[in-house]
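We treat protein structure as text, and this decision shapes the records that our systems exchange. This encoding replaces a full spatial description with a residue-level series of whole-number codes. Below, we set out a record of this kind in full and without editing:
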Amino acid sequence: MSFSAEPPQADRSETVTKQAPTPPAAADGLDPGDVVALTAQLCDIESVSGNERRIADAIAALLGERAPHLAVARNGDTIVARTNLGRPQRVLIAGHLDTVPVNGNLPVWFTDAHGDAVGGQNEASTLWGRGTVDMKAGVAVQVALAIELTEPAYDVTWVWYDHEEVSSELNGLGRTLREAPELFAADLAILCEPTNARIEGGCNGTLRARVTLRGTRAHSARSWMGVNAIHRAGEMLQRLSEFTPETVRVDGLDYREGLNAVRVTGGVAGNVIPDLCEIEVNYRFAPHRSEAEAVRFVREFFADADEVAIVDLAPGARPGLDAPLAQSLVRAVGGAPSAKVGWTDVARFSALGIAAINFGPGDPLLAHADDERVPVAQIREHYAALRAWLSA
């Protein structure tokens, strides 16, 4: 695939949602001078997964107007902007442009310290709406600093990517890593996922499996003639309910695992004994386990099933806090790092041998929630900490 600062063609692949291109100079009035106002502006550009074209166009146009010090490449709706100052170390800072679907929470709004809606911001106010936490506050910090820091202490690679909130095969970061790996060389990667502006190291791995139980159909009036596949699932669901997940210490951080049924399907009709029941299971495993070990554990746990099919699998990432650059960032931010218990794209960088951490504004417990919100002060705190560290 070719890379260009120009907007891509609408038919870039069969697996990516096709969209009509917008004018290349459409910066959508973005103003990088105030990171909080910029957060609100970016949030109001609706970018549910598959609809990132407009926000990618706006950021690309803004960089073209305001950041001549950056070399900008574009792959679909993923943008990579790099300084080339000859610094001995390079930092990569990434964030995704898409959100989960909107549910009456756009455009964004501010509330004061009492929770009352107000027309603007102050240091005690909160910004509400889709994307404020996951993760356009972090994206706004990236954009503002990418433009402002023309002479950072390290060479910096800024990455904004599409399709993070959907199937892994659509992920713009993964796509661009495969097609242009040379753009991602770095000594440390920082993903601006929400962490309450504190350092979270690594991430758990994730596995989804489809556990199949088979039976024999029969008329429900003569149920003894059949084998009820749904009833067979009862013992497994009880076993899952009683399962106690481990908390595993990895490189000084505690990762809590989890094994849960997330969907059950089965049944034919109201008068038929079902001959099939499927349980979808999600296993969150600590980053000391390999993908093969996670698969083996799940297959052994459901050894009495008729079939266990692995439908999704992504490795975890160790904390990465032993890297000298990560240690210097921890000192600059302050506080004790904690484990990222969810899966994030730091795993993609870790797989390349790049130490990677999560550091962004917003409470991760509010990600995807309809009452998604971020304190104004936390956006500014994250901006100030990252700016000071990159300028040191």
User: Anything to note?
Assistant: The domain at 205-314 is CATH 3.30.70.360 (Alpha-Beta Plaits). Residues 2 and 243 are 49 Å apart (CA to CA). The first strand starts at residue 71 and ends at 75.
